[in-house]
Amino acid sequence: MGLMGKAWKRHDPRGMIAISVLALFVAAWPSHALAKISETERALLVREMMSEYGTAKIVIPRSKKPLALRPDGAHDEEQWEDALDEFGPAARVGDTVEITKVEFKGSKLIIELNHGLKGGRKWWHRVQVAGTSNQGTTLGRSAEVYAPGGTKIALVYDKELPSMEADELRELLKPVLDFDRRSATELYIEQLPEEFQAAIKEKTVIEDMDRDMVLLSKGRPDHKVRDFKNGVETEDWIYGVPPGDVLFVTFGDGKVIRVKESYANVGGQVKPYEDPNQPK
Q1: Within its chain, how far is the Cα of 136 from the centroid?
Q2: Helix, strand, coil % (nearest 5) of the chain?
Q3: Contact status, residue 129 vs residue 89, Cβ threshold 8 Å
Q4: Which residues, at least 6 apart from 14, have a Cβ–Cβ distance to it below 8 Å?
Q5: Residue 113 burial (C-beta neighbours within 10 Å; 0-12, 13-18, 19+)
Q6: d(Cα 77, Cα 83) in Å, to the nearest integer?
Q7: Is residue 224 within 8 Å of 236, Cβ to Cβ?
């Protein structure tokens, strides 16, 4: 009988503490660290992930070699940027991609998107079906924008691939792909600092917002007015018409530099923005 067994028989408190600590350590250790992926799990991953659709959360390059992604969500920025410079994007933020192949190579789990480097949108992603609506509808998944190209992503582990299920794999791919079917607008908003997210949610405007954020928060303005003074160009977006509350949002260098709200009486007038490039 070993030392721990003898300590246990004598009710040695030190032995009991050692066994308790060991039990807690084993219980807290991630289950996937204790077992490698089985053949059954591999087959289930292929079956459940094939033809799965996701939405790109970041720009994903086309690439000859699988783009490395670590289990903690980190990726080789230099590799991704070089591939983007050479081959362009496989998917932009908000584009829909399809998983077309799942491979296992040593310590790598390789996910093929849109049939790889030579793949991309298919003809049925562009076909319109007449009679379903005024604009028609795209076969399959009509409300989405399909990615223009294909690529491969390799989930890379230090040693062997751990035990995992499809939901765990989706979670590991979350830094790159969103499987919750959210729109490009929702994904864009989620990447903004919290103060801007809150302002958009509350339909308000704060300083340092850009034009896209203001459009998401307030929509298109009723009028635009540009001004050029002392070598500085500004642009006012004006929401509301007299009589009533009027909101003035002033942009400088593409950012909101001033927000002013006032009440315009009956007879008040706001000069509409005139495009200097348009003939009068």
Answers
A1: 28
A2: 30, 30, 40
A3: no
A4: 7
A5: buried
A6: 10
A7: yes
How many Å apart are CA 71 and CA 79, to the nearest integer?
17
Residues forming beta bridges with residue 104, ordered by sequence position = 109
Residue 11 is given by DSSP the state: T
- What single-letter DSSP state applies at residue 146? B
| DSSP characters over 152-220 | EEEEE-SSSPBP--HHHHHHHTTTTEE-S---HHHHHHHTS-HHHHHHHHTT---TT-BHHHHHHHH-S
Which residue intervals of the chain are DSSP H helices?
3-9, 13-28, 31-34, 39-49, 77-87, 166-172, 184-190, 194-201, 211-218
Structural contact between residues 235 and 250, judged by C-beta atoms closer than 8 angstroms: yes
Rounded Cα gap, residues 205 and 247, in angstroms: 10
Q: What is the CB-side half-sphere exposure of residue 1 using CA atoms within 13 A?
A: 7
CA distance 143 to 161: 36
pLDDT tens-digit readout, 8-19: 444 555 555 544
Answer yes or no: are the C-beta atoms of 244 and 264 closer than 8 Å. Answer: yes
State pLDDT tens for residues 88-126. Answer: 999 998 888 989 999 999 999 999 999 998 876 554 344
DSSP state at residue 61: E
For strand 89-91 and strand 108-113, is the pairing parallel, antiparallel, or unpaired?
Answer: unpaired
Residue 52: Cβ within 10 Å count: 18
